[in-house]
Task: structure prediction
Amino acid sequence: MATPYAYFKKEIVPLAEAKIGVMTHAFNYGTAVFEGIRGNWNEEEGQIYVFRIKEHFDRLRKSCRIMQIDFPYDNEELSSITTKLVEMSGYREDVYIRPLAYKSSEVLGVRLHDLEDDLLIFVAPLGPYLDIEKGARCCTSSWRRVEDTGIPARAKITGIYANSALAKTEANLNGFDEAIMLDERGHVSEGSGENIFIVQGDTLITPPPSSNILVGITRDTVITFARDELGIPTLERELDRTELYTADECFMTGTAAHVTPVVELDHRPIGEGKMGPVTARLVRLYFDVIRGKNPKYARWCTPCYSKVKA
Ligand SMILES: Cc1ncc(COP(=O)(O)O)c(C=O)c1O
Result:
């Protein structure tokens, strides 16, 4: 039986014992930054591979710089804590790893300075987030993506997810799977928890970081696969909503969502209204790589279980 563990106040404890006080600054004011990392179950090997752990902790470190959170951990230490947590938790399925660096002082007062900081990490099972085979039916959100001049989207700040939650719930309650948000200038930004790509002819196009996106690690993975495996270049440029309507294919990328085709936007089918051929090739490659089945990308996969099937 799997029992989840957490890294909390510099110790590994059962998840059930990792509790914060109600006055914790991050809980009251959204002053925390986090990551979502997947550990992917490989049935044949009896192994869980954590995907691109270094890139996730590098991004967390950058988020901490923006939010003035002290983060005195190196990647080796973080990787060792993470793999140990997954191994101790004992899951034999896909898991999600959530590191969260936060303002831990139990005091009132909105600010970033003169507060203590801490790090917690927990592990939870997480299956598919969206239906990849069926694809996602999306709407353009009436909520705009927050701007870098408001809350910087390049940092994965907990408080920023109020923006994502407003968009996601509006979409779901209106019968859609996911929301696509525009930025204040009306260009496509991203989904509530995913980056967006279109396939147009023999090119991929995706909004640049200046369109207020979280610069996704899955986004980078897909750009790498497209270039190195499919010979398809990616153009990072501002994208209009109507370019999505007329694209050959459209898909979203994210640690939770993996690579999910967008088959419909605002009641208009995109392309053939089902997963297109370029998306299908990327999806196949992606799942092989994240489960540690493609030796060329073994550097991106960190194993957790020290004792595995021969
Ligand atoms: C708002 C937002 N955009 C994009 C992404 C995709 O980023 P990544 O591929 O690094 O998970 C996420 C998920 O982490 C997200 O929350």
Notes: The CA atoms of residues 148 and 212 lie 6 Å apart.
